[in-house]
Amino acid sequence: MAYDKTIEAIIRTLHIGDQGLTVKRMFGGVCYLVGGNMAFGIYKDNLIIRLGSPELAQQEIDSRRALPFDITGKAMKGWVMIPKTKLAGPKEYKKWLDLGLGFAGSLKPRIGPKVTKGPFLKPGPNTDLEK
Predict the structure, then answer these.
(1) Has residue 38 been placed in a domain?
(2) pLDDT of residue 120
């Protein structure tokens, strides 16, 4: 499954990489990690955000600003999926990305083989991204 490269381009223009992110292919899309913890990603034509709080995620779903992040038949708690059609522009993207960055940045960094080494947008294992 391909993911929407225009969403990726918008993320790049926002200079989110200054946050020390790494990139890894997951879910048939691409995910952005802080200290080895996923903050957000792209799945098909959706932005996926790790909010952490199941209650906050449910509030966003109930308000119809987001959808449950469900690609397997079971929604992931604390995560939401925002269709590209609901993202009005860069400010809207940044608002969501900051929520994911805030949560992932609050977690203890992961160590071990699951952490993708390298700077933002540098291809790591299992990626086909270009610099």
Answers:
(1) yes
(2) 52
